[in-house]
Write a structure and sequence with these properties.
heterodimer, A: MetI-like fold, 2 domains, 12 helices, 0% strand, flat, B: mainly alpha, MetI-like fold, 10 helices, elongated
Chain lengths: 313, 273
Amino acid sequence: MLRYSLTRLASLTASLLVASLVIFLVLEVVPGDPAAFMLGLEADPETVAALRRALGLDAPAPVRYLDWLGGMLRGEFGLSYTYKVPVAELIADRLWISLPLALYALALSTLIAFPAGIVAAARRGGPADLAVMGTTQLGIAIPNFWFAMILVLIFAIKLRLFSAGGFPGWGDPLAAMKALTLPAIALALPQASILARIMRSSLIETLQEDYIRTARAKGLTPAQALWRHALRNALIPVLTIIGMQFSFLIAGAIIIENVFFLPGLGRLVFQAITQRDLMVVKNVAMLLVLAITLVTFAVDLAYAAVDPRLRRR
Amino acid sequence: MMRRANLLAGALLSGLFVLAALASFLWTPHDVTQIAVPMKLRPPSAEHWFGTDQLGRDIFSMVMVGARISIAVAIVAVGLGMIAGVPLGLAAAARRGGWLDELIMRGNDLVFAFPAILVAILITAVFGPGAVNAILAIGIFNIPVFARLTRGAALGLWTREFCMAARVAGKGAARISVEHILPNIASLLIVQGTIQFSLGILAEAGLAYVGLGAQPPTPSWGRMLAEAQTLTAIAPHIAIFPGLAIVAMVLGLNLLGDGLRDLLDPRLSRVAA
């Protein structure tokens, strides 16, 4: 297990390094000089040159790349070109919306998907199964940002139960959770649909195993066999999918934040693009890649801990 | 019976949109570039089946024309993913455990860490927004999907007798891959292609919605929804119809994918659930 973890850790570090290089190189070819951009059209060339030096933009590319990497390791992400504050501060502020939103959606999706998948598998072919399969087929086809708009139309505009967007801050945790509820539901719907289907098929497959027949032969009822023996084994592939969904949730959150005007990382990165604030784009992109890679890594390790066969690969 | 119903419903539904997109080159009920502000935000009527938008344009015609860009972006992106991904997967399987296999699989892990939206954001930062960005972003995301699928399926085939026989007959790895492996995984690729096509439609809509896809004046479903957003309170129909179009198209492709899977290879229905 230790050896497996170390190999995976090495490959994780390697892919993060390559990812950072890709992001750096892509943004390196972007036309335009950030220093000139910050100072505006009227700026005096000498001031621009001085600012370039101050920002470290005059150094050769490899030096700037290493500076950026070193800075990230120390938790310094450089200075935002437009906000003129450290990018680390900007990200930390926004993370307090994006991360809770993703986790909220993940929790909702799991809470919906588990019972739905279990019921569908236990009553395979019955009306409950058909209902779950039909609903999830639709849930997969609905774009989450459109679902979000429909939720706003119904619950904010018609019923006036929620606000249509914005975020009141964590000063009032209840109000904050309420503001995140519609976005989280919109994010959770497609993920819950996928998860429910995987839960169902994994459980159906497990229920056909010999040890379930043995359990039934011992005198367990179908429900007992399902809860005591099948469910635990069926969960393994489901957990992997939950881990993978984290990356979809992050990607989805970038769009959903724009529907609800939530000042999270997604909004930050879009504002940064329109304002050509590459320092922010670069660091947020790297942070998202880091988050996704780390979650995948954690899932791989958890998976290997549960199923020793996977360690030899 | 149920299976055939999936296939039929899916083929009809997605075929309808492809037809609408093709027909829109020749005819639409109204001209989509025709702005008639006095006619703006009219609810659905006999004249305007889906109503009119904030500039008085006919939404039904715009949905027809919008199907073009969605379908085009998704098809080209999936094509890109297949053209790059399938040969990579075949090569990885032919030299299992070799440096190429290792490189391709690590490259795959890397691409999986970049969601399509992030790729689109990075490309947009460099070239500015446009439909080509959407194609590239979705296409790049599709490469590892097809590479992994091809590799996994091909690995299983390499151990089969007919591949051994071909090898004994003196055929090289490349020839075996093309002549024996590829035909055997074609149905798998077609099914996955349909699924990726539907994901591509969703991704294109999302990118267009946040302004990273096709730019005005090209009508696109995602951007129609973005423009509708502030107006949903007074004219819900302008947000409802483009959204329903996306749902129907994606649903159709998913049903078609399921139906094709059952038709072409019943054994797959368990694996790919």
